[in-house]
């Protein structure tokens, strides 16, 4: 009887640099890749509608890739432990391998499963495919988790930089294991016996029943090959100017790798290795083994490793968010800073302003542009995310949890660690947060980061004819000019639902009340 290993694929939907797959291939003669659909096990953070859309496409891509290599993805639905046990019995598997997830509900589930399977006599092993550095690895001098990014990055950042031989010899054992290059996908895989059956991806009903996904289909190519194409495009077109252009929402200045990273179609070790390879100029192309489709060679663009630093820093924020979620598992619903538990959020009927914000009809152009980009493409530029979050939590004084929930349902990159950190940072109640009193003025933000109004014109075409100097504040335009541009505020485009100056003052007063009550406690 051949040794059989199950590889339980979850949010590691790739074949390159997949430690669970590599371990199964090293130790099992028969390797069976399985995907188990049990969304309720992630409750209360089951994948939202946009994430389900992505998952469907990504599973299709993975399934095709496995078939090209001679294997098959076995999809089953139902409680994970029971389904694994059934598969183990059917296949005579003696091993199960998976890559770790870091959400609190999934950590608890996986621990239970590991314990139960080990009690059954199964060899169970979990691996790291998602992070450069396990969230329990880096601690402050006093042994606490980091709550501030800068000192965290001071520890992590140097480990990502290319180490010289001397530094390598004298450095303490690194938290990031980067010495071995990430593995390319296998060239072939052992076949899965015909007797083992599974569901078609369609049976999981992940696709929307009414077709709202046209914009998503136009914007994305989910799957491992799509991830590598996005990375190569970024290395050719954008990494050199990333430090500046990353702030311009109308520019294609960022990597747009967030959904690929979330679903594990590419891993941060692979991104880092490819950046290093391009920097050193020694590489002959991506080690993805996927059809990256790139024709020009980006190696020449790297004159200096410093070019990559601003980008690596963002990957550092991703690591930081994961270690926060790991150490503070209550933060998806509660503020990290307990002072904010009693924050006086807006009272009365909160539905109209929340709905206006969700639909991109606040009457504040840069905010509406961001919210419409999100609705249409399942993604929003980071600068716009910060602006819309500030308006919701500070000017509208609606709880950050409302915003986080909306993002959870509409983002293709919805990620519990990054989303929680992003919202708490924006609301001023999280780790290393923007102080509550630093309230973005969306008009100034628009003028600074969308100077010519290209982002607003794209997503709010009803404002397209306004001149640049008024595009971010149409309410300042004389009635005659509005008429000339075909705009009636309150009809084609809403009048602002909030007075920015007055709401700012109210938010600051609310913050003062929280600070004062914290002082008297
Ligand atoms: C309110 C709010 C909510 C957010 N929700 C999410 C979310 O659900 N999922 C998500 O992946 N990101 C989230 N972010 C972070 C950030 O906006 C996105 O990661 C980024 O816009 C993705 O685009 P990109 O891949 O082109 O990023 P790039 O600029 O190319 O960055 C590369 C990668 O670094 C990571 N990264 C970048 N910025 C951050 C950040 N601030 N925090 C953590 N990781 C970061 C992402 O994995 C990203 O793919 C949120 C930010 C805010 C302000």
UniProtKB/TrEMBL annotation:
Alphabetical UniProt keywords: Chromophore, FAD, Flavoprotein
Cofactor: (6R)-5,10-methylene-5,6,7,8-tetrahydrofolate; FAD
Biased composition (Low complexity): 285-299
GO BP field: photoreactive repair; response to light stimulus
Gene3D superfamilies per the UniProt record, alphabetical: 1.25.40.80, DNA Cyclobutane Dipyrimidine Photolyase, subunit A, domain 3, HUPs
Chain intervals for the UniProt region annotation (Disordered): 280-299
Family per record: Belongs to the DNA photolyase class-1 family.
Protein name per its UniProtKB record: Deoxyribodipyrimidine photo-lyase
Natural source organism: Halochromatium salexigens
